[in-house]
Amino acid sequence: MEKQNLDWGNLGFGYVKTDKRYVSNFKDGAWDNGTLTDDATVQISECAGVLQYAQTCFEGLKAYTTEKGKIVTFRPDMNAERMATTCERLEMPVFPKDRFIDAVKQVVKANASWVPPYGSGATLYLRPYMFGSSPVIGVKPAQEYQFRIFGTPVGPYFKGGAHPLTVRISDLDRAAPKGTGDIKAGLNYAMSLHNIVDAHKCGFDENMYLDPQTHTYIEETGGANILFVTKDGKIVTPKSDSILPSITRRSLVSVAKDYLGIEVTERKINKEELADFAECGLCGTAAVISPIGKIVDHGKEICLPSGMNDFGPVLKKVYDTLTGMQMGRIEAPAGWIYEID
Ligand code: PLP
Ligand code: COI
């Protein structure tokens, strides 16, 4: 199959229209059969639930070309499960897991020419999403929904690839105690937009959020979980009910424990502990692992010993192992890799 003529090595994290996307509609209490379409536009009521009351959620996963030239996706079952949890919380209908996985496969297969080649550093980012499409004017869930998946070829989420980031401790919250921080609702991202624009204006790459109840413990950033490494080489990651359960983080934790014999603890992390760590990084589908070199807490600079030039050694090892699995260089645990035939 002929690949698209793109400069794969220089792609940013942006939208590129690909050939086919998947659409299924929910009406009268049931999902239709779903289909692939060329039409990249959405037509809905001016009063649709998504437009009036932000009834929308999404997922993110990637398709990779392996060393042997096969196209694979990584743990799409986990995205299906997390989307189901999100939908239940937002009073949206669940799109069945087997159909979600099948739709992912259909979209990747139909856009195989857009899956970046092995070694290019790029991947095909897949965006499953769902929204309330029928009119609602009183505050209540819509009756009709649309589930879609498109793919777009992407490079690194942060400009400069693995160049360590500078983040600030945020004054604003992305989540509320007992709110929606642990689901992938569009509203969580809408409310982070002002803060990320402001962070960029102030010269920071990201906001590091604190727990919304006490503003004492580290949570996550607007689009990724956080991993820390202690000075004796152990991984520590925040435990909280208001962070998104990252599939990348959960995979990295397994890889660290089971493949690399690294001790991993999930616990509350007080912001006063930041100066004690040796390494820090963001993790997520888009970010993979992006090292953090500096954390700024209201003028106080915390410079990670791993520095501003590269990954620290522990995060580099877990990064290499996970990406090795995704690219087919290292055998992954059973059930993690889904081949597209
Ligand atoms: N946290 C937030 C707020 C996110 O938006 C994401 C992205 O999906 C993540 C964490 C990372 O999750 P995952 O590894 O499942 O992509
Ligand atoms: C992802 O990593 O898939 C995300 O959703 C993060 C961001 C692009 C919102």
Note the main attributes of this structure.
alpha+beta; D-amino Acid Aminotransferase, Chain A, domain 1; D-amino Acid Aminotransferase, Chain A, domain 2; 2 domains; nine-stranded antiparallel sheet; eight-stranded mixed sheet; 17 strands; binds pyridoxal-5'-phosphate; binds 2-OXO-4-methylpentanoic acid
Give a structural overview:
The structure is a single chain. By secondary structure, the protein is α+β, with helices and mostly antiparallel strands. 22% of the residues lie in helices and 27% in strands. The protein has seven helices and 17 strands. The strands form two sheets. Strands 1, 2, 3, 4, 5, 6, 7, 8 and 17 form a nine-stranded antiparallel β-sheet that branches. Strands 9, 10, 11, 12, 13, 14, 15 and 16 form an eight-stranded mixed β-sheet that branches. 43% of the residues are buried. The model has no long low-confidence stretch (mean pLDDT 97). Bound molecules: pyridoxal-5'-phosphate and 2-OXO-4-methylpentanoic acid. Pyridoxal-5'-phosphate (PLP) is lined by residues 60, 220, 223-225, 244, 246-249, 284-285. The site of pyridoxal-5'-phosphate has 12 residues, from helix 6.
